[in-house]
Amino acid sequence: MASAAAGGATRVVLVVLAAIWLLPTLGLLVSSFRDPRDIASSGWWDVLTDPGQLTGANYDALLGNGTFTDSVWTTVLITVPSTALVIVLGALAAYAFAWLDFPGRDWWFLLVVALLVVPVQVALIPVARLFNTLGIFETTFGVVLFHSAFGLPFAIFLLRNFFAEIPRELLEAAKLDGAGELRLFTRVVMPLAGPAIAALAIFQFMWVWNDMLVALIFADSGSPPMTVALQQEMRQFGSNFDVLAPGAFLTMVIPLAIFFAFQKQFVAGMMSGAVK
Length: 276
Known about the structure:
mainly alpha; MetI-like fold
């Protein structure tokens, strides 16, 4: 009885904490449907007593803005290749570190782990000079390359720990059946790595989708991603919530939808390397 009561109390506390955590998101959603004059004169909670304040005019104006709609497509062109490249290259490298023997394997893996602590800010100026020399500065390809390079250390670290848990007997049985390394990787290892791949994809997607620093420096100023486009929409004098609120919510809702869609795989992937 006592354990059931404790479990019920824990659930209540978790529900309250979740409600508090989601309160700013709810406020942003409500504000995105309010008139700019109402936003400036009162808080979003006034909608509870005056729901007539809600209007879709902000979204109509934002979605009718060609600069913003183009930025959505630019964001997709940056995020999807950056995520796919990190998954493919990270999985190949992680498989090599987990199951292939080559000189200096442990030292190379230690170097990869060390790269996890390197902040993005340290590389901005050197990489900008390099990209300028290569002619890919202020291009979508340059932004994708930057995000892919900085996402690989974490991808290799996460997937290597997952791959190392695969029973050796399973791989040896596949080799006895005539499977080479490539077939072993594609037919045995990758199908088992679904949870880890999902966790990695969510991390990488959210990081690239919400990035502003790298996009502000390396992206084409004439065709920026959503984060930069929203920053450019800010007026010199005024908060401009009628643009920022719906734009910020649209920017946030896609990563949230992806996270909730793959929540079980995400948790399983994060827990895969925690226990043996």
